[in-house]
Amino acid sequence: MLRRPEKTGLGRAYRDAYAMVLDEGDWDRVFMMDADLSHQPRYLPDIDAALDESDFVIGSRYLHGVSVLNWSIIRLNLSLAANRYIRAVTRLPVADCTSGFRGFKAEILPLLVSSRVRASGYAFLVETLYRIWRAGFSITEVPIVFVERTRGSSKVSWQVFMESLLTPLRLRTGTLLGFASDPERSAQYDE
Fold this sequence. Notes:
Helix content is about 40%, strand content about 10%.
């Protein structure tokens, strides 16, 4: 378990955890999911099996229509619109760009802890997915049903919302200008 003395953003929490796993160096596969059981552990075998054929697997809420329980229509439409926007701007070839239920091969860890990843909020999920795709790693999705938490609340602030809105534009613009291209799989993810 990784305990942090202060909250410095979701992206920083992920990066710190990835760095810890990378330092241990004993893992072939890494899985990430919400601890509130919105991501149900029963889908882990499906994600694990998909890693036999792919480098990175997303537990997708939108692979076959909509598979979300107990969200308001406003939140659902916001999530669907966000995914459409991200795909339109970045050209990511996945249905659910914002899912945090993921599994991946450990060889991807250096890219995930790279200083090139700048997003600190929920946009961290989009930025890392984009960089994985641009680096040429294979990505697939498996269907899941997402169940809204019964306790706690969302931590989306105005700042997190703005970062989520601007990150796809930053990534796409950087790619078009030649700054975000990762044509080779290498350990040189930092520039």
